[in-house]
Amino acid sequence: MTQRLRLLVGFVNQGVISLGTLLMLVFAARGYSSEALGLFSVGVLTYQILIVIFRALTGETLIVLPRAGRREEKELAARCLQFSGTAPLALIVPGVVGLLLTSGVWQVVCAALLIVPGLALQDTLRHVYLRRKQVGVACAVDVLVVAAQLGIVWFGAGQDVPPWFLILLLGVPTLLIGYFRSFLDRAGVSVSGSREWRRSSRELGDGFVFEAGLGAFVQWLTLLSVAHFGSLPEAAAFRAVITIYGVTNVVTNFLRSHYLSQLAHGGELDRARMRRSTVEMVALTGGTVLFSYGVLELLPESLGEELLGETWMLAVPYLLLGAINRFAAGLTSVPAVFLRVLRMPWDAARTRILISVVTLIAAPLSVAVGGATAAFVTMSIMSLVMVLALSRVIVRGRKKRE
């Protein structure tokens, strides 16, 4: 399979995943009230954020590590899978305790903790396939998982299954597929293997997870702020707009996985290649967001209500703000990809901390004053500030190395 074909298949792969997320929202919205959908959305966002963090420790680090011999490559993949299958198990105890002792928002958050082990392992498995250039296999596994999860949401929301229980059911397909495939690769659960992985990837992995954790925490806190200072229906609308623009996640995830892999192992990243890659990534992000916004604006109101129920009417006022927010958020992937390829995650640590602290203060305050509208505006502005600041870090870092 040629490099261009692998990139095309990779883009289709991420398209399948993002389409699955959008259809999941559609099925949930058709079966749940806006309040129940708000709870379900918090649970989904919680496990998605945790997967982003584990991906930084495992899959993204695996992709940018230097290539080795065939035997060493096999051992490296096994250690990575062992870490993904072992470390998240620590979430089971707090998840079970919280599930039994809490209710409402915190109950769905605890349910999300319980399904992270399977989700993290299946996500790492995808990156193992990418490193091996088995893009078709990765796509096939994702299609299987997404199909199973859509069936679960379609049935569960239709039967008015409690949101926390539906979150638990979403973890079943990845748990079965992830651990089954991991044991076939002679990885499975291993504390010693997990330690070996951390020893070989600590510097890069810690830098990547630092970046991912800050960004994910800000997004999660913003959603909880909307739910707290606004209402659960408003939180559902906030999350619905982000999910409706889920096709933009195709680009973000594509850049952070397939495109990252191609840049990391495609030769020297000189100035000309960086400029060309920047234009490609910005154009891909902007074009996707613009297309999505155009489709949503032209979507008949009756069809929107048919697909998303009462949530559609809640989301309509935020479509333009949502498009701006998704474009700004997507742009942050551009410097993030370069920082990974150049292995400079810690060079941007001080910048990320400063901007994230400002965002953590500004987001809840803005939500308290202006609700979901203020949340979109604040997150968009801070995303653009982050892009400019990280770009400056990259330029300064390259000058020092030269």
UniProtKB/TrEMBL annotation:
Transmembrane segments: 7-30, 36-57, 78-99, 105-123, 135-157, 163-184, 204-230, 236-256, 277-296, 316-339, 351-369, 375-395
Name of this protein: O-antigen/teichoic acid export membrane protein
Keyword annotations from UniProtKB, A to Z: Membrane, Transmembrane, Transmembrane helix
Species per Swiss-Prot/TrEMBL record: Rhodococcus pyridinivorans
